[in-house]
């Protein structure tokens, strides 16, 4: 009974996976009639020699800060501040906070393009408070385009993290807090010794979702800046797309894909390992 | 004991957080019905016909038909396959389950970036690029791991005697599955099909690679090229965005809990 699904799974996922590994050792321009040249690990070594790829890797680190660390920090602070009180209408708030998760990235890109535009909301707001000097074309600025894109990730992710951590805190037995209070723990110690350790599971989920999201960023960059200005917002997934479907450098693209996947896999494994290890 | 101040403080914090999400969103919705193409909001002159203009200019009618066709094919087939695999791995003793199931779940960790390149060349040779069926097949194949994982867990949570009792009554496994067991795991099936709907509808990356014919492109791609051409008409872009986002948003209004539960479980994807 599992056979139909297994067949399609093998054809769509497993076979191409091995093909991709194979492609990554060749220099091939994607034209069926052209010949490919065996280049060994050159396409992987490009991560150490190609300036654009190195840039893309650096950009991912910046995006991890904005997509993962910042939203998780915001989520933890709000969950800690909210504490264990049951708020009337919590479901309604959760509905709003989670909403960016169900919107497609193209729509989010258009929402934020309006805000970052030269005559957009952000510049208007800055002018209104007299900070005219800070206004700029956010997406056209070599230094600010990447943080501007990153901040969209923060906006999308902080609600998810908050909802996750709120539900996690609600599941912590209240005796833990009572015991801590008897020991004379203040709110800060209470957070570090009770709230945080008991949110391990939720932290793992939040980290996996947001970090892999940052690593795989494509839609947002493609629609908003196409990697520009210059190459100030290129990401590995963007270079994969360009190499495979625009510049005819299929082997390089395959190598980028393999590296993205291996890193995602490693992150997922490390995160679950750390969480389970602490559980014992 | 929770004091009154603490309760007010909590509502205040949540209100601030919600406002951070809502202010850009509401501003966007209002811009969509405003006359100014700069995206400025003007509520004295509400233009509902922005939606009509955007619909025509962006050819969203055709794009929505494409999206609905691809999504419905993907959701239906994905769900049926997931029920069958989940049942096989969760309740029947399938030979080789110990090896097969981990192999399938491993697929949760394979990101689509790594497989699209060879798939593109294979599909091109099979004339499955520029094809709604081709795109649906991709979504179905990539959805197998999550479907199997999700439905196996659902069947595992049922008491084992139920299937046995039905079989004693003389119903075959196939009939037992669809008439007795499926109704019992309905909540899990609903969550799965909602997620599958959202993931397929919201896809941009796969569509961009596999559909190059503008006449065949789904709504997300159509919106992308619409904003490329009309980036100076912010109100129309906003209206177009709302048209494209509407189906998933509507489902989200009615099935909020399913989405939250599923996305959290989907972190394993």
What does this structure look like?
Chain A is mainly α. Chain A is built from 13 helices and two strands. Chain A has helices at residues 3-23, 42-49, 51-82, 90-98, 105-116, 121-128, 145-170, 174-182, 187-198, 200-215, 219-224, 236-245, 250-279, and strands at 26-27, 37-38. Chain A has a two-stranded antiparallel ribbon with strand order 1-2. In chain A, helix 2 (42-49) packs across helix 3 (51-82), helix 4 (90-98) packs antiparallel against helix 7 and helix 12 runs antiparallel to helix 13 (250-279). The longest helix of chain A has 32 residues, at 51-82. Chain A starts with a helix and ends with a helix. Chain B contains 13 helices and no strands. Chain B has helices spanning 4-32, 49-57, 60-90, 97-106, 112-125, 132-156, 161-168, 173-184, 186-202, 205-210, 219-229, 234-254, 256-265. Chain B is globular. The interface between A and B is large, with 89 and 86 residues.
